[in-house]
Amino acid sequence: MNYEKLNASMLLRLKKKVKMISAPQTLIIYYSRTGNTASIARQIAQIIGADVFELNTKDAFPKDMSATADVAIKQYQSGQLPELVETPTLSSYQRILIGSPVWNGKLATPIARYLQETQFSQQQVGLFCSSVGQAANVTTKGIKGTTKILPTLFLVGSVVTADQVNQWLVKDC
Length: 173
Description:
Number of helices: 5
């Protein structure tokens, strides 16, 4: 029996277990109309070993982005944000990361609705936003129940690197 290989293998497994124990249990919640934010959410989940939950609305948005933008403007103006089908249970998570596309410079209305309805329990919370390049006026003021708020991560396109994620998550709340 090769004890050197066995010890290296055992050490690797032990390092993975220690990393799992020491890293906060993380849930990524996102809404994605086109798949761009979904792709980023899955990439972040793979990088940090997080669970993922996709928010869905009761009524679908138009396929055309201009029409979706018009609907979102009306929803924000009227305060009638879209109804969500289901929301996740947060009690077993220490960190919640929320992904949203940017619509008209703001969070997508399904995410705004989620934040409006959700009271966090002192979890660390962070937003990540995907955009096709438009400026964003995204705020974390809607996050309730915690003061542990990460700076918002803004991404253009559908790719995120491990370095971007690691730099984002190590910032103090």
